[in-house]
Amino acid sequence: MGQLKLFDCDTTVKPVNVASVPMRSPFRYPGGKTWFVPYVRKWLKSLDSNIELIEPFAGGGIISLTAGFENLARKIIMIEKDEDIAAVWKTILGQGGKWLADQIVNFEVNLENVQTLLSLHPNSTKQRAFFTILRNRLHHGGILAHGSGLIKNGENGKGLKSRWYPGTLKKRIMDITMIKNKIKFIEGDGLDVIKKNMDLSNTAFFIDPPYTKAGRRLYKYYNIDHEELFHLAGNIRGAFLITYDDAPDIEKLACKHDLELERVLMKTTHHTKKYELVISRDLAWLRKMQGD
Ligand SMILES: C[S@@+](CC[C@H](N)C(=O)[O-])C[C@H]1O[C@@H](n2cnc3c(N)ncnc32)[C@H](O)[C@@H]1O
């Protein structure tokens, strides 16, 4: 039976055009889900518009932000364990958005200024937020995990500044402050928050955990109990959608917990093609989307 289910799960679907997705996050996030936004829109529109959306592994938060800006959920809860990322969300969704935006536009990016600033220990949450945005925009691949370093050559010979767009970042941050009343941020463990809220009916979970293969290189916190996550997901009362890297162990876990699985084609930043897994109790909306 388990063997049969594995074959049932093995379906491949086409990519969608993501050119129209607005970039709303101040982060350039490794493993970020901007490319997945058209799918999440369809998913959330297939649910009751009065739902609360919970994103237990928020990272750069593009899914929560999109739901907030496009009124796809009544209320949104974002959770993130990394203290640096958390500092950014606490600052923008608290009282510090304008302060952070001003720091960004007033900072002159050059190697000396950046090295001097990043050698300091932040003395407040909002300063930690500023240092995090700086590292995220000026590090290779936006990677904040231990061992990552500053961009040297960058795009078009622009070196360190190749991903530093202060005016755009300011606008994105100020836009988020306009919808901050819809979004609650929790610094903590995503699995704990799922456990505490899994009995709620009018709730949808968008679950994008650290990847099994690349997680160690990309994130400070990469080690989660994937088996436990599937166990919890199987007991969620409302809706949920899980995305993962295309790993055979994850496919087996989905089948073991009797969940539906589809492969979705994404294009990486290097324009290579790669599949990711989408897992849920019911993926009829996704299959319909692929058939459209
Ligand atoms: C794949 S990324 C999420 C990317 C996000 N969907 C986006 O579009 O930017 C996974 C995130 O989970 C965070 N994380 C790792 N372990 C966690 C935990 N136990 N609880 C909450 N967040 C965690 C990582 O720091 C990382 O930001």
Please tell me about this protein's structure.
The chain is α/β, with parallel strands linked by helices. It has two domains: 1-80 and 191-292, Vaccinia Virus protein VP39 (Rossmann fold, 3-Layer(aba) Sandwich), CATH 3.40.50; 82-187. Helix content is 41%, strand content 15%. It has 13 helices and eight strands. The chain has helices at residues 2-9, 37-45, 62-69, 83-93, 97-106, 111-118, 125-138, 166-178, 190-197, 215-218, 226-234, 248-256, 284-291, and strands spanning 12-13, 52-55, 75-80, 183-187, 203-207, 239-245, 260-267, 273-280. Strands 1-7-8-6-5-2-3-4 form an eight-stranded mixed β-sheet, with helices on both faces. A hairpin with a 5-residue loop joins strand 7 (260-267) and strand 8. The chain starts with a helix and ends with a helix. Mean pLDDT is 89; it is low at 1-10. It binds S-adenosylmethionine.
- The number of domains is 2
In the CATH hierarchy, the third-tier topology of the largest domain is known as Rossmann fold
Q: What is the percentage of strand-forming residues? A: 15-25%
Q: Helicity, in percent?
A: 40-55%
Number of helical stretches of at least 4 residues: 13
